[in-house]
Amino acid sequence: MQNHIHLQTTDSTNNYLRRLHEKGDILPSFFAVSTDFQTNGKGSRQKSWQSEAGKNLLTSIWLDLQVPVKEQFTISFRVALSIAQFLTNTCKIADIRIKYPNDIYAGRRKICGILIENILSNNFVKNSIVGIGLNVNQLRFSPTLPNPTSIFLQTNKEWNIFDCLSQIVDNLKVISNLPQEIIHKKYQQKLYLLGQICDFQVHNDHFLQAKIEGVDTTGNLIVSDNNQQYRFAHNEITMIVES
To answer: Based on the domain organization, do 41 and 80 belong to the same domain?
Structure first.
């Protein structure tokens, strides 16, 4: 694909893209950096990302979508939908869901993680660095990971990692041009455990059992407990997932 650099190894594809930007390189929107292996791969909430070398899609995509800061979660909507669409329509994997705020699940197993780092200017997201770790051809995972899976494990066939990247970028280009209300509706329809009662840890200090009602247009998770509704930002609540 065009506008793509592939590296054998790097510390983190998100870091690599940021360094290109900071040294003054002009990066077109949807420019991608991928690697066979990350020595310091980033996951969400300051966690590391583990991946067998050469088996998975480890990439970061540069976006120039220029959205207001208050609407920045719409970037996550677009990215998650682009990956979910690829896994559903191209890979034919059943029950692909978006686990709030930044994971993709196949059934009850995690197949992909997303880490978005935004570059702000005034009240706008000027650019975004979208990190994606998609398990593609890996067969065995560390026992420390609670519930991983891969495209291979779901489809029983090997996949070309660069083709996966190309199709996800193509999806992202199309979805980014859809009206915001359509993007939000599609995201809601794919939400993991929508309408079900789940256990959550809130603000890292107490627990809540509540039903998932949806995600609002600003990216807050909506849950209800005993007919009372709550809204939490993505950094205020964590779903407790059983292995």
So the answer is: yes
Give the residue ranges of the chain where pLDDT is below 70: 42-49, 242-243
Alpha helices in 143-190 (DSSP H): 151-155, 161-175, 180-189
Rounded Cα distance, 157 and 91, in Å? 10
Residue 9: per-residue pLDDT: 96
pTM above 0.90, yes or no: yes
Domain that holds residue 128: 4-189
- Is 105 in the same domain as 224? no
Structure tokens at 111: 């197949």
Predicted pLDDT at 204: 72
> Beta-carbon neighbour count of residue 63 at 10 Å?
23
Please give the pLDDT value at position 226.
86
Instruction: Compute the half-sphere exposure of residue 223: CA atoms within 13 Å on the CB side of its CA.
Output: 24
Q: Is the peptide bond before 179 cis (omega within 30 degrees of 0)?
A: no
